[in-house]
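Summary: Need help interpreting a holo structure output

Steps to reproduce:
1. Submit the protein chain below together with the SMILES for calcium ion.
2. Request a joint structure prediction with the ligand placed.
3. Inspect the structure token block that comes back.

Expected: a single structure record containing both the chain and the bound molecule.
Actual: see attached output.

Input attached:
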Amino acid sequence: MHLFISIIDVYTGKASFQDVYSTTNHMTVLFTTDKSTTRKGFLANFTTGYNLGKPESCSSSDFQCSSGECIANGSLCDGHPDCSDVSDESNCVLLQNGTQSTNGKVQLMMRSEWYTVCAEYWTNQLSEFMCQYLGFGTGNATLVPSPDDGKTFVTVRQAENGSLVLTPSDQCANGSVVYLRCITKPCGTRMVLHKNDGKIVGGENAKQGAWPWIVSLHFKGQHVCGAALVNNEWLVTASHCAYGRNVHPSDWEAVIGLHTQLNLTYPQTPIRRIDRIVMNPQYNKRTKDSDITMMHLEHKVNFTDYIQPICLPEKEQVFKPGMKCLIAGWGKVLEQGSVANILQEAEIPLITNEKCQQQLPEYNITQRMMCAGYEQGGVDSCQGDSGGPLMCQEDTRWILAGVTSFGYGCARPQRPGAYVRVTQFVDWIHNILN
Ligand SMILES: [Ca+2]
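--- attached output ---
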């Protein structure tokens, strides 16, 4: 039997906290203390009730915004923000039947129904507009024959004032619809040129600017974990880094574009406070499943040669066992050793989950995890590298395949390291980014 437990929140310290609600008829509260002296202990009040903490649900002719308000169904995707969080206008374009999330036939949501967009009146500006709406860069449209499968169609025209004029129809005038190919925003590119020579155990010093998306996360001024920059305001890291330290996000700082911990004040090294921490609700501290968390920068960063985002994988992307990928971090350079000042990097091969399960029998290696390591050991991520990226190269771009999660010791023979399998979380990540 599988028991799915979602973390609602984790609170530490002496302060009192806002109310927390369970959205099921069940809630488990765990109290743990690391003090053995006799003190006051814990105080918590419990209340039960129907839909506690939930906004009242809307009538069937209304749409409920993510922020709770009710708006008329007709206000969905009408180009006008009606919800305070604009969630009524946030899922109105879809690319259907493409080979990747970046391409497909353009579908528009109107009056709670999906319409296929006719090729008539389509322009390059519309391609660009739709791709940017979907969070991509520019795009190119091709016109393909419309299937005669009883779908509803719509023509889209740009009015002189820039607004979109949508006209539904039973068929497309010239019999073709719009197939859009969007280009993802630049990511995963190393800007500083590198010769091919090259706390990670068995690693070597990275060149300055080698991994421009790697972030050092400082908690109360100390490096504790790594993270990866996925756009100009969001980081991906591990949940166990944030667990119990998520009440005051401002205790965290992200040091970006960093090379050595001994010099935090290079001009190319901005430091940003964290203002939001979103732990994956499926994270389980005991089994280490779904060990992934997003952190939001209080202020955006500008991309430079030393600061670039890493690419997220496609949901269906496969990283084959045997593939050599890279890890990097400021963690311990030996299991019993000290942390690294200069960013360390190392190449490690991916292994199958089956083999990983055999070699880490203490854990349940789930489909949401992936593993990497040499049979003979010697190269591994270690304490302080947690949350940092497992990076795999595709063509010329670097992709965030994994997030450093756990292992058994560091770099021991036949003891691979376990990573979050990011492909399993791309929908969750994109939801937060948009
Ligand atoms: Ca609206």
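--- end attachment ---

Reviewer comment: The longest strand covers residues 397-406. The chain is about 5% helix and 30% strand.
Status: needs-info
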